[in-house]
Amino acid sequence: MMSQAKSATASKRPLTYQEVWGRIGIYTFLGVLALFFLLPLYVMLVTSFKSMDEVRLGLIFSLPQHFSLDAWVKAWTSACTGLDCTGLQVGFGNSVKILLPSVVFSILFGALNGYALSFWKVKGANVLFACLLLGSFVPYQVFIYPLVRFYAQTGIYGSLPAIVITHIIFGMPVMTLLFRNYYSGLPVELFKAARIDGAGFWKIFISIVLPMSVPIAIVAVIMQVTAIWNDFLLGLVFAGRDNLPMTVQLNNIVNTTTGERAYNVNMAATVLTSLVPLTVYLVSGRWFVRGIASGAVKG
User: Fold this and answer.
1) What CA–CA distance (Å, rounded) separates 128 from 218?
2) Class of the 89-296 domain?
3) pLDDT tens sequence across 264-299
């Protein structure tokens, strides 16, 4: 009670001159930083709601004189993504088909690897973990050509399974590192008690470990959704013409020039492409911080 009273008294203490100016400096810095990052988004939004006649005036910071959604409709339904003029709606469907299995399986395999490396110590486990850790830092461009050759030999190159398997492979090292470090901070007594009660590998993983993995699983989902949805190179190389993700189609819209370049459509298409990762961050950003704080960086 006395400590609580002291802390309450300390919290009511008036700020000193240095503390006031320190807070002003911090808030000013954060405000300038936020302005720096939000200004491009503002320009994209206001440009996407303008007609091309307004865009030609060159007043990129001005609000639209006549608010219009025509550029958004065209970007979604009829913008040319190469030879096809069907907009981003096809690419959105392709991105969802790529995203869902890639996120689920990469996280599941990462959690399984992290669980095995944390609680089921076998000979060579540290070497295996070191190899997985090394895979997190090797540029994936190094593996593109060997994977192209391998997929071509197996007959799945340019298909949906090819791009999904690729994302799972490249996601597993980071996911394994994430879950292994998190599980290292869990009470080992729970694991030992479960083994004494006769629970095996899968029983412990499904009944004990997975329910305790919610915070770090949310972190993993945010990381994988952002990485896979924003990917361009892997989708361009492995997805094939029938499964091109939204980012590849956005590139085709921006770089396709037949006559006048429609900047308002380009801006609308860019915002549409980024809506999914933006929504994920806005909805679950606080869970990301909680997951990191609850042990994602323990080791």
Assistant:
1) 25
2) mainly alpha
3) 899 999 999 999 888 888 887 666 666 655 554 444
